[in-house]
Amino acid sequence: MSLIFYCANTLFNKAIDHNWLPERVVINGSSTNVLALHNINIQLYLAGRKLNLIEVLQVKYLNNVIEKIHQKVKGKMHQCLGWILNEGVTATLAGIKL
């Protein structure tokens, strides 16, 4: 077992322990993450929790999609840096659709 696979498996297990068991996980094109989630699904299957298997959704360019959305938010937030009066804030936010 490679170190990268071990780290990915540990990361997913810690996230599940601290939060909950997700229904689906969206990840980038990394095969290591897919293998780690497949390993977790095997553990769930062997434990008799067949209904709790994690659906893995892979997006090849996930970071590009996130950056594209983040640019829109940064552009709108850059306009907000000069706000002094509350009236300007409410007027600007009324016209923003995120």
Element layout with pairings:
Elements: H1 3-18, E1 24-27, H2 31-46, E2 55-58, H3 62-80, H4 86-94
Structure commentary:
The chain has 98 residues and is mainly α. The chain folds into two domains: 3-60; 64-94, no CATH class. The protein is built from four helices and two strands; from the N terminus they run αβαβαα. It has helices at residues 3-18, 31-46, 62-80, 86-94; strands spanning 24-27, 55-58. A two-stranded parallel ribbon has the order 1-2. α1 (3-18) crosses α2. The chain is elongated, with a radius of gyration of 20 Å. 4% of the residues are buried.
Assembly of the depicted chains = single chain
Strand numbers in spatial order across the main sheet: 1-2
Distance N to C terminus: 43 Å
**Structural class computed from helices and strand pairing:** mainly alpha
Q: What amount of the residues lies in strands?
A: 5-15%
- Counting structural domains, the number is 2
Estimate percent helicity.
Answer: 55-70%
Number of strands: 2
The run of helices and strands is: HEHEHH
List low-confidence stretches: none
Mean pLDDT across every amino acid position: 80
* Largest β sheet strand count, sense and barrel closure: 2 strands, parallel
Give me the number of helical elements: 4
Tertiary shape: elongated
Q: For the CA atoms, what is the radius of gyration?
A: 20 Å
